[in-house]
Amino acid sequence: MKICDRLREKRNTLSFEVFPPKAGGEMEPIRSAVREIAQLKPDFMSVTYGAGGGNSKNTVEIANEVQSLGVTALAHLTCIGATREEICSRLDSLKAEGIQNVLALRGDKPKDVDSIKAGDFPHASDLVREIRARGGFCIGAACYPEGHTECESRTADIENLKIKVENGCDFLTTQMFFDNSALYSFLYRLSEHNIDVPVVAGVMPVTNGKQIARICELSGTSLPQRFRMIADKYGDKPAAMKQAGIAYATEQIIDLFANGIHAVHIYTMNKPDVAAAIQKNISEILK
Ligand code: FAD
Question: Is 3-286 a CATH 3.40.50.2300 domain?
């Protein structure tokens, strides 16, 4: 099933994200989490990809596992430092496994920028063009309601995003955001730029207070005061933080659906209990 077809139906969809083990890491605990999350029958599950491609085999393997469990898989693919030949071989592996959906990404630049070899695809839009030219895939790409950290302005970021869409991307998934008004004003700016592909809203349930500052620093996501108060109060009480993080994400999602958003993607970080709790909280809303 191509995800873009499902998104065009405009019924409420819920999807979850999993990440494969790093190269050399243990596969079984991840497989077990994937099986549990797949039992929730989300509309699709996305499988992340290590920038630089070190664990590319694991992404294909986990995406394949997802599909064998009867759930559509969205395999992430990054192009930073990759040659055309490497990308084509990864796309061939995905095709051979019957994976029809790819999230085309550049990947984060490592801290030591000099360590990246020059690749054939400087931007995700170049990767999108390549995948489109080969045909056969539904192509997703990333977007940033609060702007990408490297971009000088939000307008420039949206102009770059437009190139990605014009090069053949079928849908967009957002970076996490904790204030829904950031998404609503982003959608308005997209419509001003005539970007009209479906947008999947990415929501991160924060269940670990210690990670919040780092997540926000890396992603450029801002924390509203309401969330700051929750994190300050419960950040060092794991069970309370988890409950609060799930409740906050649930409220965000209800507000999104109530405001006409049809597709929500949850950054579940291999946590079946978090995925299940949120799905249960919105079970009637999803119908
Ligand atoms: P691009 O679209 O190439 O954008 C990167 C920067 O370049 C932006 O500032 C943009 O404005 C600018 N730019 C783009 N095109 C042009 C152009 N033509 N000319 C000039 N400037 C341009 N990382 C992983 O390593 N693995 C994953 O699995 C992964 N999954 C992700 C999933 C989602 C939903 C999101 C939002 C991010 C994910 N990331 C992942 C992180 C992502 O790789 C980083 O945010 C990365 O820094 C940018 O990737 P991109 O695809 O948005 O890049």
Answer: no
Which among 76, 66, 61 is positioned nearest to 25, based on CA atoms?
Answer: 61
| In contact, 124 and 165? CB cutoff 8 Å | no
Ligand 1 near 51 CB (within 6 A): yes
**The two three-digit tokens of residue 199, written as one number:** 């947008």
Q: How many CA atoms lie within 13 A of 281 on its CB side?
A: 18
pLDDT 10s digits, 24-66: 889 999 999 999 999 999 999 999 998 666 678 899 999 999 9
Strands 171-174 and 199-203: parallel
Residue with tokens 């990054």: 78
Q: Which of 160, 189, 216 to mutate to test the pocket of ligand 1 (most atoms within 8 A of CB)?
A: 160
For 178, other C-beta atoms within 10 Å of its C-beta total 21
- Rounded to an integer, what distance in angstroms lies between the CA atom of residue 108 and that of residue 50? 9
Rounded Cα–Cα distance for residues 122 and 261 (Å): 32
Write out pLDDT tens, residues 162-173. 999 999 999 999
Residue matched to tokens 């904790």: 178
Our mutation pick for probing the ligand 1 site, out of 16, 123, 128, 162, counting the most ligand atoms within 8 A of Cβ, is 123
CA–CA dist 122, 79 (Å, integer) = 8
CA distances from 260 to 38, 78, 199, 248, 286 (A): 26, 31, 11, 19, 13
Helix axes 272-281, 28-38, angle to 10 degrees: 10
Which pTM does this prediction carry? 0.97
Helix (H) or strand (E) holding 271: none
Is the separation of the CB atoms in 241 and 248 below 8 Å? no
Strand, coil or helix: what is 141?
strand
The CA radius of gyration of the chain, in Å to the nearest whole number, is 18
